[in-house]
Design goal:
Blueprint: E1 2-3, E2 8-11, H1 18-26, E3 31-34, H2 36-55, H3 79-90, E4 94-97, H4 100-115, H5 123-134, E5 138-139, E6 142-144, H6 152-162, E7 167-169, E8 175-177, H7 178-184, H8 196-201, H9 205-240, H10 250-254, H11 261-272, H12 290-293, H13 295-318, E9 325-327, E10 332-334, H14 342-385, H15 399-413, H16 435-467, H17 475-489, H18 494-512
Parallel strand pairs: 2-3
Antiparallel strand pairs: 1-2, 4-6, 5-7, 7-8, 9-10
Helix pairs in contact: 1-4, 1-9, 3-6, 4-5, 4-9, 9-11, 9-13, 9-14, 9-16, 9-18, 11-13, 13-14, 14-15, 14-16, 15-16, 16-17, 16-18, 17-18
Keywords: Lyase
GO molecular function, one term: ammonia-lyase activity
Protein name: Histidine ammonia-lyase
Length: about 525
């Protein structure tokens, strides 16, 4: 749990929340501590490992080789050297390196995994990972290499640095040796005890840790989607006689109990409160297009899947995914398959599909907003032909094309990622989740969806500003339009316009989404 204004994350027996992991990963100022309960459990867990090893019982990865070599024993006098070999062998990822927040999320997630008592690492090994976080040691972790049956290559890159090997980044972003990174932090390289190498690498700390960072962005997108929908409702009401709020009414939402749908509709009503759309207008269309009218159903389904992802992440964070599992209750080490995060992988999959549907509705609303913009352009041209000069437009005219391109990307990214894993290790590892690939595709979808929604927000705000203040905007939407007005007034280039609007919306959306949404 997070304690006090000093930003300390205390890890003990209590459940850990995904949002707390993400916040601690994003902020290098967070201090991480293992409380006495966690340290005591770690000690009991390690005693079981040492007793098992002393008994001569054959246990996977403790005194045997890995994968297809699972039934080949490792001699006792080679166990310490074997730890180094395991880490070096698995430190074979490729691709671009994770950023600082993702790297911290990997270390923190594995530390939380240690604290659950299933790994059998020594208390001092777990504490060393806390020291790496607290001293901002930043391992260079290649992004590619995991098949989703434990993120072996990602975690081996961390373990290599902990041992004084591998590579890391300095404070100024220079790639340095792991040994130097530890020395700069005042840490002495870790010497692994028997069984610890496998415990350090055999977990899904990348998929889970980086997944918590994606979760925060997805939660923002769920709110952003309702904000831009509200802006477009007000815009279509001014220019096309639409903006019928009956689909958002409590009566409609009470008629079908779909998780997330009521929240989406309530958010729209909250944003539009106090505005002219709340008044019944005789001229309003009896029904808007489905991209408006059925948006609570689409946005609500997306919200529900975001909630499911949060649950899946917290199952992984608070569970014991180790293999072999040190079962403190029975005092035994047991082989199992809890390292296979299938529920999490499928949550990543479903969200990409949901984002594509959110994107389809957004792009269709943008398309309906562009005819009024064309009319405005025609009016400007008439003024110019009358000798009044050509008025500079604040909104680049082809943002709709960019939106269409982003939608095409979202549809492409919605394809399944988890079904493509080949069999490995002499057909012993004959099924994998590909959770890391599903996550990385989801991160791309989040990026594209946010840009698409920002374009809708800009388009609607531009048109609302052109329409003037004849009718009052909602209390929430009015604030958003006011903030985007400053961005539009500067007339930046299209890339800079979207970048600045995106930054502004990340601040203003939480502000306007607060309060009672009954």
């Amino acid at each position: 749990m997070v304690q006090g204004a000093s930003k300390t994350l205390v890890i003990g027996a209590a459940p850990v929340r995904a949002a707390d992991v993400a916040r601690a990963a994003q902020d290098a100022g967070f201090h991480v501590e293992l409380n006495p309960d966690a340290l005591s459990l770690l000690g009991r867990s390690r005693e079981i490992v040492e007793q098992t090893a002393a008994s001569g019982q054959r246990v996977y990865g403790l005194n045997t080789l890995l994968g297809s070599g699972r039934d080949t024993a490792v001699e006792e006098n080679s166990l310490h050297a074997y730890q180094v070999q395991v880490v070096r062998y698995h430190n074979s990822g490729v691709g671009s390196y994770l950023d600082r927040a993702a790297a911290r999320a990997v270390i923190l997630t594995r530390l939380i995994g240690f604290s659950r008592g299933g790994s059998g690492v020594r208390p001092e090994t777990a504490t060393f990972y806390a020291h790496m976080l607290n001293n901002d040691v930043f391992p260079a972790i290649p992004s590619e290499g995991s098949m989703g049956s434990s993120d072996l290559t990602h975690l081996a890159a961390v373990a290599a640095v902990a041992m004084g090997e591998g590579e890391a980044f300095s404070a100024d972003g220079t790639l340095i040796s792991g040994a130097k990174a530890l020395a700069d932090a005042g840490l002495t390289p870790l010497v692994l005890a028997p069984g610890e190498a496998l415990a350090l690498v055999s977990a899904n700390a990348y998929s889970v840790g980086a997944g918590t960072l994606a979760l925060l962005r997805l939660q923002h997108l769920a709110e952003l989607a309702d904000v831009v929908l509200s802006l477009s409702l007000e815009t279509i009401a001014r220019y096309d006689g639409g903006g019928n709020l009956s689909p958002f009414s409590p009566a409609i939402q009470a008629a079908k109990a779909v998780d997330g749908q009521r929240d989406s509709a309530a958010a729209v009503r909250h944003l539009l409160r106090g505005g002219w759309l709340e008044d019944v207008r005789p001229e309003v269309s009896v029904q808007d297009a489905l991209s408006f009218r059925a948006a609570p159903q689409t946005h609500g389904a997306f919200r529900a899947l975001v909630t499911q992802l949060s649950g899946a992440l917290e199952v992984e964070l608070n569970g014991r995914g180790d293999n072999p599992l040190v079962d403190v209750a029975s005092g035994a080490m047991v082989s199992g398959g809890n390292f296979q995060p299938m529920q999490l992988a499928l949550a990543f999959e479903g969200l990409r599909l949901a984002l594509a549907h959110v994107g389809i509705s957004s792009e269709r609303r943008i398309a309906k907003l562009y005819p009024p913009q064309r009319a405005i352009r025609a009016r400007h041209l008439q003024s110019a032909s009358a000798g009044e000069g050509l008025v500079q437009e604040e909104l680049p005219g082809l943002l709709w094309y960019s939106a269409a391109g982003l939608l095409a990307e979202l549809k492409f990214l919605a394809a399944p990622a988890t079904l493509g894993a080949p069999t490995l290790s002499a057909d012993v590892e004959d099924h994998s989740t590909l959770a890391p690939l599903a996550l990385q595709q989801l991160e791309k979808s989040v990026e594209a969806a946010e840009k698409l929604l920002v374009i809708e927000a800009l388009t609607a705000s531009y048109l609302l500003l052109e329409a003037g203040a004849a009718q009052p905007l909602g209390k929430g939407t009015g604030v958003v339009v006011g903030r985007l007005a400053d961005v539009l007034a500067d007339r930046p280039s299209a890339p800079e316009l979207v970048k600045r609007a995106r930054r502004e919306l990340r601040v203003v959306v939480p502000e306007v989404m607060g309060g009672d949404r009954g």
